[in-house]
């Protein structure tokens, strides 16, 4: 037994010694960076350095303490179960919660505070979401999601179900549906969303809104490092991370197979590696690809970086003493706002235009005293530059106005700033009309750059490089595995 163990140990040492010559740098400690490290280490490739610009690990997973638990400023829901790597890696060892967006209706309120007939509105919601489901399954989709929706919705309006509903309500609801769709996809307009690109993406079926209850999405990092479910298998990926290392230049040479990639950081430090996996967001690539890479990236990749969509969403969490939104015995999911023209005008003239982009104010699973404001679009600059106190006051203004009563002030608030953070520059990617016209997609962003000996020296991972689930957290994980596999394959 001893003997055998000694033999195995020597063998292990030998194999790690050999990869000393082939250091790997992963840029970014988000889901894709950690997934890549995990897959490399699973294959006994341990000579890894992860360079992270922020002072924390996680990237667009940012679980923070709030109220009496942990909430998510970044990804919050596990979207789907079947073929969802995140769900599959955790299902047997984590008991998920859910936000019942698909089982319950929101409470729709007119911004002037007059109560409105929820029954009519629910009929519109049913018809609209049926159309949106159908768009996902179209055989040969043409044009934008917005145009496709309008065509089908106009047809549905002529059907009996919606015939007696007041046209003004239908118009208000149409705006609401668009706002929700934009919020979900981080696009500023559904006329900029390609129906074709949308249909090329996969969708993990099953519950689309699983939550991490009070523990936050960062729980998943324990599964990536194998701390969970069995701590004995822990891979110490955290120890490979160097924080506050903002990469400013990546110099590579495709002609000379003996040359390493040189990575330089803003603090002047530099690193040398045989393989570099680049994972920062498409927003970072759009703004910095010219200064980041020397020589310049291939034309096709630049075309893809420029044309694939990247948008923003925002969130505000408000904590209250009591859940004023609960009426005795009535279940509650969310407020959604039907903006009347004069209220839009008032919002604009009082510096509250950002509020028109709120998709809804939702309950938060397991936090009975919290509300979550969600907003979509790429025009979130104002929202992000306003102070916390103004944002809170504005939220209360809208709630009091639409519910037509005075309400208690929140005890605490926290909010996001993804767009103005130079290490993200937005929230997630989307299949834009420009992407369709340029005939590019995540695959072109993903394409590795090979050396003369076919070794992948510069690899691209991250949410926007995943062909099947771009934008999603599980897409990010998949992309990290994919990039690591390319390196592993090279050494086989
Ligand atoms: C508000 C919000 C809500 C979301 N909600 C959901 C959801 O509910 N469900 C879901 O599935 N997905 C959701 N997403 C998407 C999900 O968060 C992402 O798909 C995923 O986390 C992206 O991981 P990544 O590794 O590709 O990128 P990132 O997490 O962005 O990782 C890249 C890392 O690179 C670092 N970096 C950037 N520039 C540099 C540099 N120059 N040098 C060094 N490091 C650098 C960044 O700081 C970051 O840590 C949401 C995203 C946001 C922002
Ligand atoms: C609010 O707007 C609705 C729809 O336009 C209208 O029917 C109602 O009278 C308005 N209420 C007030 C108080 O102005
Ligand atoms: C945000 O609101 C503006 C109007 O103020 C509108 O033009 C834009 O389309 C909205 N964006 C989204 C994502 O709803």
UniProtKB/TrEMBL annotation:
User: Quick one: signal sequence residues?
Assistant: 1-17
SUPFAM superfamilies in the cross-refs: FAD-linked reductases, C-terminal domain (SSF54373), FAD/NAD(P)-binding domain (SSF51905)
Q: Which cofactor does it need?
A: FAD
Domain called Amine oxidase: residue spans: 31-487
GO-annotated molecular function: polyamine oxidase activity; primary methylamine oxidase activity
Question: Does the keyword section mention Phosphoprotein?
Answer: no
Q: Where does FAD bind?
A: 32, 52-53, 247
- UniProt keywords, alphabetically: FAD, Flavoprotein, Oxidoreductase, Signal
Q: Which PANTHER family match?
A: AMINE OXIDASE DOMAIN-CONTAINING PROTEIN-RELATED, FLAVIN MONOAMINE OXIDASE
Q: Which family does it belong to?
A: Belongs to the flavin monoamine oxidase family.
Name of this chain's protein: Amine oxidase
């Amino acid at each position: 037994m001893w003997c055998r163990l000694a033999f195995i140990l020597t063998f292990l040492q030998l194999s790690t010694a050999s990869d000393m010559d082939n250091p790997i740098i992963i840029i970014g400690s988000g889901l894709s960076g950690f997934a890549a490290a995990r897959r490399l280490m699973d294959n006994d490739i341990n000579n890894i350095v992860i360079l992270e610009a922020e002072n924390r690990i996680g990237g667009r997973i940012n679980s923070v303490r709030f109220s009496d638990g942990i909430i998510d400023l970044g990804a919050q829901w596990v979207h789907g179960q079947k073929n969802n790597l995140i769900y599959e890696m955790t299902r047997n060892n984590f008991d998920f919660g859910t936000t019942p967006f698909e089982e319950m209706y929101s409470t729709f309120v007119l911004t002037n505070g007059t109560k409105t007939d929820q029954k009519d509105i629910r009929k519109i919601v049913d018809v609209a979401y049926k159309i949106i489901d159908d768009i996902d399954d179209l055989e040969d989709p043409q044009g934008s999601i917005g145009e496709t929706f309008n065509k089908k919705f106009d047809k549905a309006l002529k059907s009996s179900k919606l015939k007696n509903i007041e046209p003004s309500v239908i118009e208000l609801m149409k705006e609401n549906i668009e706002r929700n769709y934009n919020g979900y996809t981080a696009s500023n307009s559904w006329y900029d969303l390609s129906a074709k690109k949308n249909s090329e993406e996969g969708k993990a079926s099953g519950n689309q809104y699983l939550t991490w209850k009070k523990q936050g999405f960062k729980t998943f990092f324990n599964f990536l490092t194998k701390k969970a479910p069995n701590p004995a298998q822990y891979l110490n990926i955290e120890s490979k991370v160097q924080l506050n290392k903002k990469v400013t230049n990546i110099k590579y040479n495709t002609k000379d197979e003996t040359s390493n990639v040189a990575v330089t950081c803003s603090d002047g430090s530099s690193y040398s590696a045989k393989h570099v996996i680049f994972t920062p967001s498409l927003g970072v690539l759009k703004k910095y690809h010219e200064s980041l890479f020397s020589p310049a990236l291939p034309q096709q990749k630049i075309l893809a970086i420029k044309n694939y969509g990247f948008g923003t969403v925002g969130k505000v969490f408000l904590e209250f003493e009591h859940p004023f939104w609960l009426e005795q015995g009535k279940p509650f999911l969310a407020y959604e706002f039907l903006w009347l023209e004069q209220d839009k005008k008032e919002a604009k003239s009082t510096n509250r235009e950002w509020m028109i982009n709120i998709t809804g104010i939702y309950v938060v699973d397991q936090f009975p005293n919290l509300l979550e404001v969600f907003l979509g679009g790429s025009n979130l600059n104002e929202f992000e530059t306003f102070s916390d106190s103004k944002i809170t006051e504005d939220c209360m203004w809208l709630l009091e106005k639409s519910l037509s009563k005075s309400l208690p002030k929140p005890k605490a608030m926290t909010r996001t700033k993804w767009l103005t953070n130079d290490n993200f520059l937005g929230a997630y990617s989307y299949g834009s009309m420009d992407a369709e016209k340029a005939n590019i997609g995540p695959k072109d962003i993903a394409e590795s750059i090979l050396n003369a000996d076919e070794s992948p020296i510069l690899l691209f991972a991250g949410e926007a490089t995943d062909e099947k689930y771009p934008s999603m957290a599980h897409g990010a994980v998949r992309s990290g595995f994919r990039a690591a596999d390319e390196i592993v394959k090279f050494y086989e």
